[in-house]
Design goal:
Blueprint (H helix, E strand, L loop, with lengths): L30 H4 L4 H10 L3 H10 L1 H20 L4 H13 L9 H4 L7 H7 L2 H11 L4 H8 L5 H4 L8 H18 L10 H10 L7 H12 L3 H12 L24 H24 L3 E6 L4 E4 L1 H7 L3 H4 L11 E2 L12 H8 L3 E7 L8 E11 L5 E10 L1 H18 L9 H18 L3 E8 L2 H8 L1 H18 L5 E6 L2 E7 L3 H16 L13 E7 L6 H17 L5 E4 L3 H10 L2 E2 L15 E9 L3 H14 L3 E5 L3 E7 L15 E14 L7 E13 L8 H17 L2 E3 L2 H4 L2 E5 L3
Parallel strand pairs: 10-11
Antiparallel strand pairs: 1-2, 1-6, 3-4, 4-5, 5-6, 7-9, 7-10, 8-9, 12-13, 13-17, 13-18, 14-15, 15-16, 16-17, 16-19
């Protein structure tokens, strides 16, 4: 027996080592750097013989552990050849390296495959694998030296130094512990990045004397820092030569004869060659696909991860192989770059529904780098019976497409947004308005438009500067935007004018909204105006069946004009919705039971709608406007007095669009004209001369009265008269400003 503290005294005849026919391969890289596809199992079989099933079980349980064990065994071979260890002892080094983690068969998957750092309890559970491995090998009839060597895995140099120096097993354990630590540090894992060989050796030297045997650390460092080509060839050949001449291992039992499985050695070699060829083609295809591809089985274990996935995620295939799949393993985040939890995982949704899923996500490698935009497609994978056995996640890098889309969105916002107020501009209003009108006409739902204008805006620019005017516009636009519902739309119409489109909002609701904005403006001081408040005027119109987008805005604009001409800082509405028509039929239509001033004009049973209008001009100008109404509507003048007129209007001759299946009505309008003096809305104490019109609308044909179609025509006549006279409907506020009635000469 050799001395355990003198590893350099052990030697084998280096000159008789057989070279590897297919060239050298570096030690310490990925497992397939040591061997071609399909060789790993054969290497294990050449050393383990009948109990190759143990290694196969570990490979199925946790392939990264199996690959790590094989790398440790190859390093042990290289060290043994370099130090001329006798063959019977060198085999023990190799087998212990190959089986030192066999006890992980007894570790729960949730601990073994956990991608994050283990907790203290989980780490304690993981450290039990050496004891479990001893029990597994003892049941398989392993030798005493093998059991002692496996039992020493994970123990420190201090605690093992008291063992019998004449036994080889403690020395094997100490060397395997060193190689195990070195390989674990230099191979990338899910929870951390790999370290360089130099840093790994520095850590081994730092812990030598306490955790590791100093002499063995120095001896192992020699073959790492001074790599020899012949040494690697010889170590590799010790494993590969046994493929054609499988022997026996005196540590784990005898090798089974090939013919017992029904195949000759030639047939087994041929099958292995076909499988290897298929794997090679598959690997080349997977590694040359431009999109990242990740295969996950039904137990949520990662079973493949191609090179494109490595580039996108920054994770190597070895670090994630057979790890439990969670979105953070690939750095999957939402489109804003925030991590998604397992409940939002597209693969989990696939396993629940079995349906293909497409989704846009991002991949963030680390917080310091911008996310990569990806199109994620998750497709099911079915077995030969048609059952769902897993899925494939396909990651397509769409960063360029996403950047282009963001630029298009940005340009669209620039093209549709007013640069000062950050609300929609006139062009966007022109695009939205036709659809807005058509939708409400098609669905018969109420919809309204509000036009508003800042009062005396020119004086703001003149007295406070144009910058103050800009701030006033921004404040006003902010109030309009804040007053909108989600379904409403607000745009800058031009200058100091703004338009609001109120979806599913009837006439009364639109007027109330405009009134609330007007009052809010009264309570909003503006810093640029020396904390003074400003006022605005509003025109309101509601959508009618015959409306176009131009007529809706024109009617609201005329309401705004009336509001400005009647004193500003008020809301004027033109047009009513269907609900108001129904209410008006019961409230405003009245039966005239008494005799009017001209009994021959109407019978006692004719329904009459009566309303008062006020126009901000004298009587003479009002009469000229009334003449324009007569000409435009082809009205007949039935009677004229000093302050009264009776007109007859046939809706067949009016400019109203004719509605299908609706019979045009004929009406008489009795108009009383009264000139008044009113308080002006400007300087205190100023007076203006205005005209008040009292209008009654009478049906000529009694059989038509009380129908909805007739009521609609009456309301249209009323609205048209208000527009032509540039008048607003009288209310208590306006009536309270009348000083006196002017008598006719």
């Amino acid at each position: 027996m050799m001395e355990t503290n003198s590893p350099t005294q052990c030697h084998v005849d280096f000159e008789h080592a057989k070279p590897c026919p297919d060239g050298p391969a570096p030690i310490g890289k990925r497992s397939n750097s040591f061997m071609e596809a399909g060789t790993e199992l054969a290497m294990a079989h050449s050393k383990l013989g009948a109990v190759t099933s143990l290694y196969v079980s570990l490979q199925a349980k946790h392939a990264p552990s199996a690959s790590h064990s094989l790398r440790v065994a190859l390093w042990a071979s290289a060290w043994g050849v370099h130090n001329r260890v006798p063959e019977e002892h060198l085999q023990l080094f190799e087998v212990v390296g190959l089986l030192h983690e066999i006890g992980k068969l007894g570790i729960p998957d949730r601990v073994l495959q956990k991608p994050e750092i283990l907790t203290e309890n989980e780490q304690t559970m993981m450290e039990l694998h050496a004891h479990i491995g001893v029990e597994i090998l003892r049941a398989g009839g392993a030798s005493r030296d093998l059991l002692l060597a496996i039992e020493g895995i994970g123990t420190s140099f201090c605690s093992s130094s008291k063992s019998d120096s004449n036994e080889i097993a403690p020395m094997v354990s100490r060397l395997i512990n060193i190689i195990d630590a070195y390989d674990s540090m230099t191979i990338e894992q899910a929870e951390r990045e790999p370290v360089s060989s130099e840093n790994a050796l520095a850590e081994l030297f730092r812990l030598s004397g306490s955790q590791f045997d100093p002499l063995l650390v120095r001896s192992f460092a020699e073959i790492v820092l001074n790599p020899q080509l012949e040494l690697h060839i010889c170590a590799r050949s010790r494993w590969l030569d046994a493929l054609n001449n499988p022997g026996q291992s005196r540590f784990v039992g005898t090798n089974q004869d090939n013919e017992k499985n029904g195949l000759t050695q030639s047939e087994r070699t041929a099958h292995a060659w076909v499988n290897t060829l298929s794997d090679t083609f598959y690997r080349r295809i997977m590694d040359h696909v431009q999109d990242g591809v990740i295969f996950i089985d039904s137990e949520f274990q990662v079973i493949d991860w191609n090179r494109a996935a490595e580039r996108l995620t920054g994770r190597t295939a070895e670090s994630v192989f057979q790890q439990h799949w969670i979105p953070s393993l690939a750095g999957l985040c939402d489109t804003q770059g925030f991590a998604i939890d397992e409940s939002q995982c597209p693969f989990r949704a696939l396993m629940q529904t079995g349906q293909k899923i497409q989704k846009r996500l991002t991949v963030r490698r680390d917080p310091s780098t911008p996310p990569i935009h990806v199109q994620v497609e998750v497709v099911p994978v079915l077995n030969e019976r048609g059952s769902l056995c897993g899925g494939a996640i396909i990651l397509e890098d769409i960063s360029e497409t996403s950047d282009l889309e963001q630029k298009i969105v940005y340009l669209r916002e620039r093209a549709s947004q007013d640069p000062l107020t950050k609300i929609a501009n006139r062009g966007e209003l022109n695009r939205q308005l036709p659809d807005f009108v058509a939708y409400h006409q098609r669905t018969s739902r109420p919809g309204s438009a509000i036009i508003c204008d800042i009062d005396f805006f020119k004086s703001i620019n003149d007295n406070f500067s144009h910058q103050a005017g800009d701030e006033a516009l921004v404040v006003f636009a902010g109030i309009l935007r804040d007053s909108c519902r989600d379904t409403d739309f607000v745009a800058r119409y031009g200058g100091e004018e703004f338009v609001m489109l109120c979806s599913q909002c009837d006439y009364h609701e639109a007027k109330e909204l405009a009134e609330s904005i007007r009052k809010r403006l009264h309570r909003t001081p503006i810093a640029a105006l020396r904390h003074a408040c400003m006022t605005a005027s509003f025109g309101v119109s509601t959508i009618r069946p015959e409306d176009t987008d131009e007529s809706l805005i024109l009617r609201a604009d005329r309401g705004l004009l009336i509001a400005k001409e009647t004193g500003r800082d008020r809301v004027v509405g033109l047009g009513m919705d269907s609900k108001e028509k129904v209410d008006n039929r019961s409230d405003s239509w009245r039966l005239s039971r008494g005799r009017s001033w001209r009994n021959w004009l109407t019978s006692a049973e004719d329904p009459v709608q009566q309303f008062e209008l006020m126009t901000n001009v004298p009587r003479s100008v009002t009469l000229e406007k009334l003449k324009g109404f007569v000409q435009e509507f082809h009205a007949r003048v039935l009677h004229v007095e000093r302050n009264k007129a009776v007109l007859e209007v046939d809706c067949r001759n009016t400019p109203f669009p004719q509605i299908k299946n609706q019979r045009p009505g004929k009406f008489r309008l009795k108009i009383t004209i009264d000139e008044v003096e009113m308080l002006a809305g400007g300087k205190k104490g100023s007076i203006k001369v205005c005209t008040v019109l009292d209008v009654q609308v009478v049906c000529v044909r009694n059989r038509d009265r009380r129908t909805d179609a007739l009521l609609s025509q009456v309301l249209r006549l009323k609205g048209s008269l208000k527009v032509y006279m540039v008048a607003c409907e009288m209310d208590d506020d306006i009536r309270s400003t009348i000083i006196r009635h002017i008598e006719l000469d």
